[in-house]
Amino acid sequence: MSYFRSGNTGGCDKSLYFARYNGSTWTAEADIGSNSHSEYDCFGMARSPLDGSVCRSYDPDGSSMAMRRYNSSWASQINLNSGAWPVRQHMAINATGQVMLLWDQDERIKSQLYTPGVGAGPVVDVCAGGYAGSCDVCWVPGTNDFYMVVARSTGGGGFHVYGRRWTAGAWSGEESVMNGQTDAFTVTPVVTADATGALYCIWEYWGSGKPQQWYAVKPSSLPPGPKGTVNGFVRDNLGVGLPNATVIITGVPSAVSQTNGSYSMLVPVGTHSVEASKSFYGTQAVGGVVVTENQTTTVDFALLTEPPTAPATLIVTPSNAQNQLDWTNSTSSNCNGVIIRYGTTGYPEGPDDGQLLLDRGASPGAADSFLHTGLVNGTRVYYSAFAYFQDASRFYSTSAGTASGSPYGIADFDRDGDVDQADFGYFQECFSGAFVPQNDPDCQGAKLDPDDDDVDMDDFAIFMRCFAGPGIATDADCANP
After folding, report:
1. d(CA 401, CA 327)
2. How many angstroms separate the CA atoms of 235 and 245, rounded?
3. Which residues contact 156 (CB under 8 A, 6 or more apart)?
4. Does residue 88 sit in the same domain as residue 110?
5. What is the β-pairing status of strands 186-193 and 170-171?
6. Are residues 107 and 30 in the same domain?
7. SS3 breakdown of the chain: % helix, strand, coil, rounded to 5?
8. pLDDT for 330
9. Which residues does 125 contact at the CB level (< 8 Å), separation at least 6?
10. Residue 66 in contact with residue 36, Cβ under 8 Å?
11. What residues form DSSP beta bridges with 35?
């Protein structure tokens, strides 16, 4: 057990204490070495069915939530989130060691999933809160799922207990737990589950004008009879744990792999076929899996995927000290990103070659663009665009869309990177004089002065500021006096 001492005298300094029961007696109390902001901030505590360790949550400063894990001794603090007051935290741990935290924050129920080896996930806004943060959460054995309950106001003094299941990385739709009971003032719903996954919820109900304890049961969807556990990991081509893969065994609810790729299922004894699948990956089936009562059988999967095709129609349009890039994303359905690398000596051959220009999300077949600025006029830049599929790992297209462009400066009419005698020859041919419009389509580039439509001495002044001679890169700002 673990508890909080409030106040600031007689050893009551808001420290968290603990004691262990060995089956017959309690050990002497000991300080775990952490403080909680108040008695409202240190409710969360649960035991892991994976390894027997115990986790304890608390609020160290009134605006954040942290956790420590006990396994013979208390490990260092794990910071979970910050920026708000987390009140009445509740906690559950599943068979893969994931920790689900539930709490009241500004009269909203929030949740957060912590995965060992991965870290804390985002804070999720679940639903409206109840009286004094009345909520609870439990693990559903035989799955990696969690189930939460909340008693919240329905208006007019009435309250109702609702439940939601966490599965496949999200909270499912809300369902009634009270099953037709008239709404009345209701507090302190508590939920737990037995070894078969059946759910039990109990709450304090004041519909008769007096506090009474009511309960409801949601039977397990597992068939009756002796059972064992099938668990393991689903991994990708690179051996990285694959989240949100579906694992199926006929006759029992499917499981969904967690953030680290782990899954766990309660299965009737016998010989089974186990299948894992996920969108954009191949399906893998393992037959002859023997399940023994109260024993664990491990089945791991490696699901393979194909990378997307390369982006199409990469086009580079040069201008003064910059290149405009336009392209069409890969049409592969699993394309969800694009990366563009560049160099000045040749095309980057792979997604790690050259220099990174951009890395952004992408929709299959969509048009996109990027303006590459700050370039040196006259220096050709070579671009390679790779599509990728980002999941637990990133898989790049095996080829790239390529194009190059050499930016050019003002008055570099022949686009060779300098302003020299050849460009002056073009300017001479297009010189029209003051107030004489230059309408020749081949001479429109000679109109360097943006304030009129002729090619005169004002344009010549700009030309001379940019004139540097052969082989000398044009200054991008040469037009400015």
Report:
1. 9
2. 9
3. none
4. yes
5. unpaired
6. yes
7. 5, 45, 50
8. 97
9. 108, 109, 110
10. no
11. 15
**Dist CA 205 CA 461 (whole Å):** 89
AA letter at 189? P
Say how far apart CA 295 and CA 240 lie, in whole Å: 26
- Name the residue type at position 370: F
DSSP state of 278: -
Residues 401 and 421 in one domain: no
Q: Are residues 129 and 272 in the same domain?
A: no
**CA dist list (Å): 411 to 81, 141, 189, 276, 466:** 57, 75, 78, 63, 7
Residue 96: name the closest of 73, 72, 114 by CA. 114
Pairing of strands 301-302, 312-319: unpaired
Boundaries of domain holding 44: 2-218
Residue 8: the pLDDT is: 53
The amino acid present at 395, given as its one-letter code, is: F
Spans of the chain below 50 pLDDT: 9-10
Task: Give Cα 121 distance to the centre of its chain.
Answer: 8
For 355-372, how does the pLDDT look when each residue is reduced to its tens digit (9 = 90+)? 999 999 999 999 999 999
Q: How many CB atoms lie within 10 A of CB 195?
A: 12
CB-based burial label for 260 (10 Å; 0-12, 13-18, 19+):
buried
In total, how many domains does the chain have? Answer: 4
Residue 294 tokens read as 């109260």
Residue 26 tokens, joined: 């309690």
Q: Please give the structure tokens belonging to residue 387.
A: 């599509």
Task: For residue 256, give the CATH number of its domain.
Answer: 2.60.40.1120
Q: Given this model, what pLDDT does residue 5 score? A: 55
Q: Last residue of a domain, which of 174, 189, 218?
A: 218
Closest-CA residue to 144 (of 92, 214, 104, 212): 92
Same domain as 232, residue 205:
no
Domain membership flag for residue 307: no
Please name the amino acid found at residue 410.
I
Give how far the C-alpha of residue 38 lies from the chain's centroid of Cα atoms, to the nearest Å.
32
pTM: 0.64
Around 45, how many Cα atoms within 13 Å sit in the side-chain half-sphere?
13
Angle at 11 between CA 7 and CA 12, to 5 degrees: 20
Question: Which DSSP string do the residues of 436-449 spell out, in sequence order?
Answer: -B---GGGGGG---
